[in-house]
Amino acid sequence: MTRTGVAALGAALLLTGCAGGGGGDAGAVPETATGSLEHLAAEVRCEPDMQTDADELRQAICENDDGKFVLATFATDRGQREWLNQAKDYGGSYLVGAKWVAVGEEEVVTALRGRLGGTVEEGTSHHSGNSGGGGDEATHSGHRSG
């Protein structure tokens, strides 16, 4: 993944609020969707705002009734895994499919999984406590409950 791709993801995660707290059971999960970024966006009823349009990575910001999220497609499985390995440092919840990823708050990713299938993976947030989100504030390093 290029530094530009990592930076774009970081900015997009700030827009989506990083990681959320809550969530619930996704219920029945459909077979994992496949297709272009535009096809996946249509499946979840969003109009993609394209941020990166390169041969190896296409990335857009989407918003639908479930919330705001990032949708990315990849030319190769290896490219997807490298992107995920770097991107997880930004926190967030990741819905992972066949050469695609949706990134957003836990509640949004759970809702998207009900339409796109896939597997949920969690990122590790290393931001300061002032940017909102960040997972469970009671147990997240640097935060105190009370």
TrEMBL record:
Signal peptide: 1-21
Keywords, alphabetical: Lipoprotein, Signal
Region (Disordered) location: 117-146
Highest taxon of source: Bacteria
PROSITE patterns attached to this UniProt entry: PROKAR_LIPOPROTEIN (PS51257)
Keyword Signal tagged: yes
Protein name as annotated: Lipoprotein
Organism: Streptomyces minutiscleroticus
Phylogenetic lineage: Bacteria, Bacillati, Actinomycetota, Actinomycetes, Kitasatosporales
